[in-house]
Structure formats: structure tokens, C-alpha cells
Amino acid sequence: MLGNAKTFSSFSAREVSQVKDFYTNVLGLNVEESAEGLEMRLAGGASVFIYPKPDHAPATFTVLNFLVPSVDQAVDQLVARGVRFETYDLPDLKTDGKGIMRGNGPTIAWFKDPAGNILSVLEGKS
């Protein structure tokens, strides 16, 4: 029934102007603003809509994963742009000094947007 329907993902932010700057100038994504919020156009034709929500609560899970050829290089480039990576020291989730989890599934590193939503760079074929 919905197999041919145009699909997009969405999540909220308290201040869309703040996240627009982050997604545009820090991450280098194509972001368009409308009266309803922000539309990010992603590689491969996908899009994500970010809508304003005054009582926004950050997601407690990863809302957006970016496939990259090298997580190490992506982390270095994003750190140079001011991104801070999350560190974890849990029984099944440990990151190294750069904030990268290795050897327990795919190589991945998590960071947050200005609204506190969790994003990741994930090593894989893009």
C-alpha cells in the first residue's frame, strides 16, 4: 500500500535557527527553511524534516546515521569544526579516546546536534 509513497523522516528541535546553522555550516548539508521548519536533503535523495517544538526533549536514540568511508577521518574533520563526540564506558558500549566504538559491531562514533539529538558517523559503504 505505501511501497510507492514518498517517505521522509523527522525529528524536533527547540530552536530551528540554531540547528540550521549546525547542519549547514558545521556538517555541510543542504538545508532549506520554510515556515514549518527545516528540510535537509541528504545524499541519495532522502530528506529529513526538523520541526520546531517549544517543549522539545532530545531523542535518547540515534536519529540520523551518516555512512562514511573512514570514521577516524570523519571524527577528525568534525572535531576540527567544533563537534564534540560522546564517550561511553558501559559493559556493551565502550568508546576510545576519540569517542569511537571499535570491534563490537560496526565502527561508529556518536555526537549531538545543538538540540541534543544523537547523530552518528558509521563506517560503511556510502
Detailed description of the structure:
- This protein is an alpha+beta fold.
- The chain contains 2 helices and 10 strands.
- It has helices spanning 16-26, 71-80; strands at 9-13, 30-33, 38-41, 47-52, 62-68, 89-90, 93-94, 100-101, 108-112, 118-123.
- The strands form 3 sheets. Strands 1-4-3-2 form a 4-stranded mixed beta sheet, covered by helices on one side.
- Strand 3 and strand 4 form a beta hairpin.
- The radius of gyration is 15 Å and the shape is globular.
- The two termini are 29 Å apart.
- 22% of the residues are buried.
- The mean pLDDT is 94.
Brief summary of the model shown:
The chain has 126 residues and is an alpha+beta fold. The chain has helices at residues 16-26, 71-80; strands at 9-13, 30-33, 38-41, 47-52, 62-68, 89-90, 93-94, 100-101, 108-112, 118-123.
Name its key features.
4-stranded mixed beta sheet, 2 helices, 126 residues, alpha+beta
How would the blueprint of this fold be written?
Elements: E1 9-13, H1 16-26, E2 30-33, E3 38-41, E4 47-52, E5 62-68, H2 71-80, E6 89-90, E7 93-94, E8 100-101, E9 108-112, E10 118-123
Parallel strand pairs: 1-4, 5-10
Antiparallel strand pairs: 2-3, 3-4, 6-7, 8-9, 9-10
